[in-house]
Specification:
By secondary structure, the protein is mostly helical. It is built from seven helices and no strands. The longest helix is centred in the C-terminal third of the chain and has 36 residues. The protein is elongated and about 70 Å long.
Length: 187
């Protein structure tokens, strides 16, 4: 059973996930920032789920609210981020400006991305170190890492969301008067 505040927090988390994925997947395009943001988003949304619900007890409800909001946020972040990465790989047409050598000779999609990657010596060596020697092994690698990222981002966010729930579970519950005053102030 979930509180309405946790469901609302999950929708806020969905918006936060879209913002993080677009900001750090497209605008800034620094992958580690997405992974650093996941537990921070979880902390925020886990706290918000129980704060919005005015929930202190029973303890299992604190954890279920936080886990639900964290799971929605983390899964949304993972799917949007992985979707953006796959879009760039599968929509690669091999275009390259003439001063840089002109169009790659490849078919659209992972083949063009693979050709683009092996042109740079350090990227080619990194691919070889991963056991990637052709387009098929590159495509398998892309899908394997996409699955790993989905699990990691979802897990990081859920773990982050459970931290404020654990903290709140051991904190003394406010009095009924304090809860009523907070609810009245919230509207």
């Amino acid at each position: 059973m979930l509180d309405r505040g946790a469901i609302f927090a999950a929708m806020v988390g969905l918006g936060m996930a879209i913002t993080i994925a677009i900001s750090f997947g497209l605008v800034v395009a620094v992958q580690p920032l997405v992974f650093v943001s996941a537990p921070l988003a979880g902390l925020t949304i886990g706290w918000y789920a129980n704060h919005k619900s005015f929930r202190w007890r029973p303890r299992w409800r604190l954890f279920s609210n936080a886990a639900f909001a964290g799971a929605v946020t983390g899964l949304s972040l993972a799917l949007f981020y992985v979707g953006i990465r796959l879009l760039f790989i599968y929509a690669d047409s091999g275009y390259r400006p003439e001063p840089m050598g002109g169009q790659f000779d490849c078919s659209n999609g992972p083949e063009c991305t693979y050709v683009r990657m092996i042109e740079e010596p350090e990227n080619a060596q990194a691919l070889l170190d991963e056991g990637i020697t052709d387009v098929d092994s590159y495509t398998s690698f892309v899908w394997r890492t996409s699955g790993e990222w989905t699990l990691q981002l979802t897990g990081f966010t859920i773990i982050g969301a459970l931290v404020p729930a654990a903290w709140r579970a051991w904190k003394p519950a406010p009095s009924d008067e304090e809860i009523e005053a907070a609810m009245a102030a919230a509207g």
